[in-house]
Amino acid sequence: MTDPAPSLAEELRRLEEIVRRLEREDGDLDQALALFEEGVARLRLARERLGAAELRVKKVLEDAEGTLRATDFDADK
Amino acid sequence: MDLFTPNPDAPWTPVQLARAARRVVEQAIGPIWVRGELTGLKAYASGHWYFTVSDRLAQVRCVMWRKWTQRIKTPPPDGTQVYLLGTPTVWEERGEFRLNVTQLLVTDRIGQQQLALERIREALARDGLFDPGRKRPLPPHPSAIAVVTSLEGAALRDIITVARKRWPAVELLLFGARVQGSEAEGDLLRALARVNRMPGIDLCILARGGGAREDLAVFNNEAVCRALAAVEVPTISAVGHETDLLLTDLIADVRAATPSAAVELALPDQVEFARQIAACGIRLGTALGRSTRLGRERLARSADRLQASLDQRLERRRRDLERLAAQLDALSPLRVLDRGYSMARAEDGRVLKQRASFTPGLEFTLRVVDGEVPARVREAS
Known about the structure:
In chain A, helix 1 (8-24) runs antiparallel to helix 2. Chain A has 2 helices and 2 strands; from the N terminus they run H-H-E-E. Chain A has helices at residues 8-24, 29-52; strands at 56-62, 68-72. By secondary structure, chain A is an alpha+beta fold. Chain B is an alpha/beta fold. In chain B, a hairpin with a 4-residue loop joins strand 2 and strand 3. The N and C termini of chain B lie far apart (179 Å). The chains are: A alpha+beta, B alpha/beta.
């Protein structure tokens, strides 16, 4: 929810779509190359993002005005 | 110690005997449930209780230590029918057989609890809250998960550990609540209501670690069940151990045997994800290879067609030329000479067509079919 970039799941979905399109593509080299390059870029990105992901744990509290606030929760304490 | 061969030369001491008896009894029977009538209960200031459980044919002395009596507010009166969970043992100091009780349930209260549970179950069923059609599928890749549980419990630690290992690209939002005791109901109701007010949540896990049956009671509470049913995102109930089935388990979209299992159900596995990504990479390469091969083939086909069309055009030109050449040839004046005519030309190349042009003595050339003949007009005679 605090993640502005598309989720990893979304990345995987797009990646699969690119692969399918490339597999359907019959001989338009320019387009095939463009799809391939986009696919490789997304693949690398997804791999990097998963590798770099760190679990975020937050505690949700309600203040006196009834507003919900999420604050970092020290999971290792 | 040999229990079966009496030997007068090596008599046992009472403590050896009592200890041996204790070991035999504890190992042979182990923890069991006993049902009977409770009598002669003495509750000491230390908090320990001593009593007897009996039926018409036998009686067993029981002790219940303070640690266990604390949960029960008042000692049941004589004659109460009870269920006791305990380990049979021998009290060495007195050489007395007795039951070491850890849990005491009053039989008719069990009946009442069961009855109350059935009433709640019926009410929830009447409102359709157990309908299979209500069950929502879990989102395949949640990015934010609400966790309703105790912030101090082992359940939360398990959830965090498993989430970190399985799919760290997720955010856990903790909605703390006491999960046993008199405050648990209110805490859980507030927490579940807050889940609905928090934007961006994909999934809600209601969790609690294992515990005694009565400690899990709040998860059979009607209001808590209805609050769980009102959660707007898909829910997982993960309360107690595999063998505990609570009403919240029936209300939630998915029941998990344990809190760890709930996370495994909720989150994809990063190992599997990496495998899928790798498979995509391989397919990309294969598809590009195929695309370039197709492109090359198409290019080759185009070149062939171009060549063929050029050849065709050249051939047409060649035939046109031949035809023109034949036509030209037919028109050529030289063709006339074929038939025996000849042509006279002056030295300057003029064609001599009339008699008057042939002045006496004039030298000229006679063109015949296969060459030229020099000639001269004879002198006038």
